[in-house]
Design brief:
alpha+beta
Length: 215
């Protein structure tokens, strides 16, 4: 019997030209090598995908909004089995990468294209670069992006195991920066839980958390 290797579609927008970049990731190929997805314009930063020794998948995603690369860590189950998984910019709060079936990704790309157009219109911007920072100094951004990465991993892990809950019982969870740290919130009922962490070491202390109930 021939076993069909798992494959997954992934897409992001080039931070230079704004074009959608779509690729197909195979589990066998990912286990063997670092995979890199790059826009044909040749100018934008690539999206890198790597499977770590513990089986977790780390992604470095170029951001069309702040032009920084954001790091994310997800489990193999989320990457290859979740129907649709979105990665967002922790500063702009906008989705920048999409993992899932091709039809679902196409729908998300259309949605975010409309959102970018609306944002440009609201800011009276003529070019994509007009809504991007001319320079982005990491020292000016708090907390450290590694804090967001660590806590996002924790939240997704608890969500997968059914140990993340909120009052509405139908939570759609996401994270955002807030005063003093990072906040996980439910998009349906607005319930929140705050992690008071501004350094990677402080964020790692939360990794022992076994359950979170949003309020």
């Amino acid at each position: 019997m021939v076993i069909e290797p798992k494959k997954r579609n992934i897409a992001y927008r080039c931070p230079e030209c704004g074009s959608a970049v779509i690729g197909l990731v195979g589990k066998f190929a990912l286990a063997a090598n670092l995979l890199r997805l790059k826009c044909t314009c040749g100018e934008g930063a690539p999206l890198d995908i790597k499977m770590e020794s513990d089986g977790k998948i780390r992604l470095s995603v170029p951001c069309v909004f702040c032009k920084q690369n954001h790091s994310y860590t997800v489990s193999e189950a989320v990457f290859f089995d979740r129907e649709l998984f979105l990665l967002n910019c922790p500063y702009a709060g906008m989705d920048i990468a999409f993992i899932g079936e091709e039809s679902d990704i196409d729908e998300q790309l259309q949605r975010t294209e409309n959102e970018i157009r609306q944002l440009m219109s609201a800011l009276e911007a003529e070019e994509l670069s007009d809504i991007q920072p001319a320079e982005m100094n990491e020292d000016e951004i708090l907390p450290d992006p590694a804090v967001y990465d660590t806590l996002r991993f924790l939240v997704r892990d608890l969500e997968e195991s059914g140990k993340l809950s909120c009052p509405c019982g139908e939570g759609e969870y996401d994270l955002r920066f807030c005063d003093g740290g990072v906040q996980v919130y439910c998009e349906r009922c607005g319930a929140t839980h705050t992690f008071y962490a501004t350094t990677p070491t402080m964020a790692e202390e939360y990794l022992e958390t076994e359950e979170i109930k949003l309020k």
